[in-house]
Amino acid sequence: MSKKVSSQSNIVKDKEVYIVVSKTSTIPSQVIKMWTREQYAHTSLALDIELNNMYSFARKKLWNPFYCGFIQEDITKGVFGRDVGTTCRVGRLRVTSAQYKRIEEIIERFRQNKDSYGYNYLGVLGVTVNKPVEREHYYFCSQFVYYVLQKAGVKMFDKQPGLARPEDFRVWDELEIVYEGKLVDYRDYIHSLKDKESEDVELEMGVNEAAITV
Length: 214
What we know:
By secondary structure, the protein is α+β, with helices and mostly antiparallel strands.
């Protein structure tokens, strides 16, 4: 895994998290897209490139868009699994080991107390009029992602958490774009990259061995 050295005190960013912005065909997603006029309507935070450990604030039950809160998301189940046309953009954020550990700790706190958290419906309305509505234990998706990263010591873009939008993460220049397309095709794409990397390594080893025997 490559490392990124920050210009601030030569800080080594040797860990990675992933920000996923997405848009499904659900009515809430379409409404949010209409209000915000943005390409994507949802934001998630993943701790691994496979998106096995991905978290956000969204619906807890597939058929009930009004029962929402903190959830661990699965790109093959729930809304994502049902809506195979979901589009997404996945960005890599490089962080320090200390920041990564802190992100894990914050998310674990959410996991342990998930029933104490609710969805910040008022906050979503506040974003549309540029008035942040921030209440303890209540978050919407992009507010949650911003909050976790900020609390972990990541330098964020200049906004209050209650005004963070999926669009802000889409254009954030700290993210390295890993993938953009249909979410259902994401893991196949990642696996194909890994297979190609393995083939390149094997080819390079073969070339080196041939050079030694000459």
